[in-house]
Fold this sequence. Notes:
alpha/beta; Rossmann fold; Dihydrodipicolinate Reductase, domain 2; 8 helices; globular; disordered C terminus
Amino acid sequence: MGYRVAVVGATGNVGREMLNILEELDFPVEKMHAVASRKSKGVEVSWGDKTIKCEDIELFDFSTVDLVLMSAGSDASRLWSEKIGKAGPIVIDNSSAFRMDPDVPLIVPEVNPDAIKLATKKNIIANPNCSTIQLMVALKPLHDAATVRRAVVSTYQSVSGAGKAGMDELWNQTKAIYGLGDARPKLFPKQIAFNVIPFIGAFQDDGYTDEEAKMWKETHKILDEDIKLTVTCVRVPVFVGHSESVNLEFDRPISPDEARAVLRDAPGVMVIDKQEHDGYITPVDAAGEHAVYVSRIRKDPTVENGLSLWIVSDNLRKGAALNAVQIAQLLDETGIIKPASGYRSITV
């Protein structure tokens, strides 16, 4: 007993993680469909202890499912998500296509679960940007304790944020450099192996990139439109796991100890913060994990009521697939979706 679910983009990094996490969290699935573009029709992907074959999105009847997890990119979402929503199921869309649509809720379940009430306006729910998700999970409890006035964020984003092609480019360039081969960039604008690139997305007229703009726009929609936020997004030669250096200014004094206590009680957060070896988290430590990790919590004496901290999370999990599955759980818990059998799950 359970839901009829389709994962669109099932052959991609995030699509595969969605299938894995639905299984890990024991989300009640009666029938699972892997859906992809025509060129991937028949490709097998893992589902539990078996494999299923991808079905052609052009031929798939979406009226036969209850829930669609969409991870096929913005262009595919713009083409398909509204059509799918009109066919009946609710779409949880991992792209940026509908994040700023006022009729589409943008949800991080630990932060703004009440936004789920808007889900049936278009039958679409937007999954935020990977870097925004981990920032929101850490900022929400601190903002509740002592209002955040301003945030300065620098991201250190792994190549998996650019998909399998990004991971391949880092791997191939690394091998080429050691073997005196061709390390010229193909996907990224500059060499990514043994380098960092202070540019993700596309430049805007103000000099920021659209990846940077996503973070403040999404923060304003999810958490508080009054938070002043400036961002620099950087691509780094890490396979999985995004990191963020965050400087915060609050409307009242908040000590590092108080911040640690607040964060330790917050859902989805793990505090690893000691001034010793292994007293902080790195992307390698966070890979494959569900939590948003916070380390290096310290007072910033250069501003009034300032703190600095370090945030790390697996961008394929909490930054994408896990957050989408948690939204699905929220839909189930609130009764917005119901399987034909009437069975309801309990969130893990």
